[in-house]
Design brief:
Elements (H helix, E strand, L loop, with lengths): L10 E5 L4 H12 L3 E6 L2 H13 L4 E5 L5 H15 L4 E4 L14 H29 L3 E6 L12 H24 L3 E6 L27 H15 L5 H14 L3 E2 L6 H12 L20
Parallel strand pairs: 1-2, 1-4, 2-3, 4-5, 5-6, 6-7
Helix pairs in contact: 1-7, 3-4, 4-5
């Protein structure tokens, strides 16, 4: 796959497409001449996004999809093939998060976050990869993880665990694909703090997975820390989209939109290599660090 990936006229599927990174991916893909299948749980925002793209001349459909549900992701794949016949670029992008001390996270927190962040990616891989392989054409999968999949900041236990799972899944997917295909590959997107809807993810939590108990002090502090960090983000979703499409074009696996985080990643690896107890991953980011009490 030495030739650059071509986007014009190809078909892209994007989950979490109605806001944040997903919407930026859709806008960037449209500008490159792609045909789009957009998925999200928010029907209103999804319709607005699809209509805006169509108004600009892009061929696009929207399919309301809860990525936790394997049957709904299967239906998304079918809708894609029914509408466009093929799929060339898949963004497993839908994501949510919670904060607070790990022992204070409820069973509902674990079910919701892992359902979206991990099973959402797994369902996308399971439903679309066989289609891509059977096409025998260039195709690519981008899984959205996070720097929280490379580090383990305090008071983010459920989110960290889910994103570490996405990193492991995607690295394994890369090796698996290398064993069977020269046409299909994947990339791992690990952004840091960017102003998106992730800080307001609770709005999409299903009613049956909402917590009855009030937030603990650590959860309140973690939420404030996240809000502050996201607002302070220097990059925009458009910046992340551009970096991601550049990586797909070049066939790069690791997409780190905030390369300064590599110092913290290196510190973690040194901890492991020297059997040193874990260093606080935010020790190099004092502007973000504010421990919950």
């Amino acid at each position: 796959m030495s030739e650059p990936f071509e986007f014009d006229g190809r078909v892209a599927v994007i989950t979490g497409a109605a806001s944040g990174f997903g919407r930026a991916f859709a806008q960037h893909a449209a500008a490159l001449g792609m045909q789009l299948v957009l998925a999200d749980v928010d029907q209103t925002l999804l319709d607005e996004t699809v209509n805006a793209l169509r108004a600009g001349g892009t061929r696009a459909i929207g399919v309301r999809t809860d990525v936790r549900d394997a049957a709904q992701v299967d239906a998304l794949a079918k809708a894609t093939l029914d509408a466009f016949g093929k799929v060339h670029l898949l963004f497993n992008n839908a994501g949510v998060g919670t904060g607070g001390f790990v022992w204070e996270s409820s069973a509902k927190d674990w079910e919701w976050v892992f359902g979206v962040n991990v099973m959402g990616v797994a369902n996308g891989v399971r439903s679309f990869t066989p289609v891509m392989l059977e096409q025998r054409e260039r195709a690519h999968i981008v899984n959205t993880a996070s720097v929280a999949g490379l580090l383990s900041p305090p008071a983010m236990g459920v989110y960290n665990a889910s994103k570490h799972a996405v990193v492991a899944l995607t690295e394994t997917l890369y090796h698996d694909l290398k064993n069977v295909s020269e046409d299909v590959s994947c990339s791992l997107l690990c952004p840091a703090f960017v102003p998106t809807g992730i800080a307001n993810a609770e709005r999409s939590r299903p009613g049956d997975l909402r917590n009855d108990a009030p937030l603990t002090r650590s959860q309140q502090a973690a939420d404030l820390q996240l809000q502050r960090a996201v607002r302070s983000g220097k990059l925009t979703p458009d910046d992340v989209a551009k970096a991601t499409f550049d990586a797909v074009r070049e066939g790069r696996f690791y997409i780190l939109t905030h390369p300064q985080i590599l110092a913290s990643v290196k510190l973690r690896h040194e901890d492991i290599e020297t059997l040193r107890n874990p260093t606080d991953p935010l020790s190099l980011k004092p502007e973000v660090r504010k421990a919950p009490q």
